Amino acid sequence: MDAKRDLVLERVVDVPPELIWKAWTDPKHLTPWFTPDPWKTVGCEIDLRPGGRFHTVMRSPEGQEFPSDGCYLEIVPNRRLIWTSALEPGYRPAKRTATPGHECEELLFTCVLTLEPQGKGTKYTATALHMTEADAAKHATMGFHEGWGKCLDQLVAYVKTL
Amino acid sequence: MDAKRDLVLERVVDVPPELIWKAWTDPKHLTPWFTPDPWKTVGCEIDLRPGGRFHTVMRSPEGQEFPSDGCYLEIVPNRRLIWTSALEPGYRPAKRTATPGHECEELLFTCVLTLEPQGKGTKYTATALHMTEADAAKHATMGFHEGWGKCLDQLVAYVKTL
After folding, report:
1. pLDDT digits (tens, 9 = 90+) for B126-143
2. Percent of chain B beyond pLDDT 90?
3. Chain B residues inside the 8 Å CB shell of A106
4. CA distance, residue B82 to nearest chain A CA (Å)
5. What is the pTM of this model?
6. Do A87 and B108 touch (CB under 8 A)?
7. Distance of alpha carbon A16 from its chain centroid, rounded?
């Protein structure tokens, strides 16, 4: 942890780790909540092993699609999931490419998700590790806390319907 | 594997995987062979776990020192070792920094080392995965095959003294 280069969303939610794990690791259960409304997640592929592919396609309200690829690093069922956009699947260093329609380069980060049982719920901690303080600041400005928080609300509401 | 973005050194050597593994994973046994003579490896720290630090310091014949940090990804004793310079230890995306005294940016790559027993020896395969064809070409021009080949000669000669 590095306070200046990390962004953290930490919250206790009233659903168990097993349901949150399912929502993060099965495309069928990820697409309903992964993108803050009115954005949609319209594609997802998950190869859940170290070095495996984590692929998503987000669609803007205007209909533009933003594919993205990450690489899984650590998988501890129901407890910890780590993936990064700094590597392609198979661990190859990822290119920093400009996203079509955006001027800026893609922001590289590593996501460390930890789930700790707490009563009948879960202490949910999502940490985004960045290269630099500037990247962390940019991610914060892009709405990290609001966006990831809203997604977590969506996740909790969704898994309660399962 | 991607023929255009990967560089591969593959050779059968007459020492067993266990000795090669020792030479790659213990600082005491890594420093004697890791840098092609007359360069020297003058520092090494190894935290042999996924996410752990692989730190080396190379010294040029003129005495200039070049520290570098990588992150271990997969560790299968005596068979497979994967680490990358695209992540810092702890999986944080690595900065591409200019090396002091060099004009160019540091080359990011992932190293996949596989050791397969072959008779009393080992089929040794070291693959460097790059972001782009340009990075692979640059690494080849920097002397990948000669350099890594010479280091392997040094490794084999060294472990025979153990």
Report:
1. 999 998 898 899 899 888
2. 78
3. none
4. 9
5. 0.90
6. no
7. 18
